[in-house]
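[User]
Protein folding is very new to me. Any chance you could explain this protein sequence and its structure tokens? I have pasted everything here:
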Amino acid sequence: MIEEIKAIYRNRTPHILGHESVAKAAVMVPLIQNKDGLSVLFQVRGHQLRRQPGEICFPGGRLEPDDLSEESAAIRETCEELGIGADEIDLIAPLDIFVTTHTILYPYLCQLKDDIHLYPDPEEVAEVFTVPLKFLMNYEPELYYIPLEMKPPEDFPFELIPNGKSYKWRKAKIAEYFYRYEDKVIWGMTARILHDFVERMKREENLDGA
């Protein structure tokens, strides 16, 4: 029996527990050189879209069965939404995986070619804009917390757990960052990914100057 178990788990790559039951998506955090220097590119979702119309996001979307990897999905979606070729994307590195209760999000950092011409898909993208990286490095986003509380339904088998209905469920909270730039407000998962990227840049900058 133990040999069968070893054979099953030999050379296995671990995944996030429960990943089969949640949506998986990949996004690209594109850097681009323009008149404001090195900048981060964002897009506004089409106002006719069913999900999150008009919200600011990074290029990306759900993984498709034909995608060879999360990285290839991020590249494919970026090409489709911005109307560019894969050869115009210089992939830099994967960023930290973002896990929520309903989605696993795989972000990637890239640089777009300096002389690139964008042809956004009007069905998916209402607008494309950039924010200077220098601005983001010196900006302190607004931070709010949304509390999360476990509330089991009445038919939950309380008799099977210690202390029954008096069980002390752990409470949690979600951090929500808000970046304001001109008439744009960046928040939600996009702001979380942006914040992680910018804060890592700040830490590395401090180490270099130490």
Notes: The first helix runs from residue 2 to 9. The chain has a mean pLDDT of 91. DSSP finds four helices and eleven strands in the chain. Residues 80 and 121 are 7 Å apart (CA to CA).
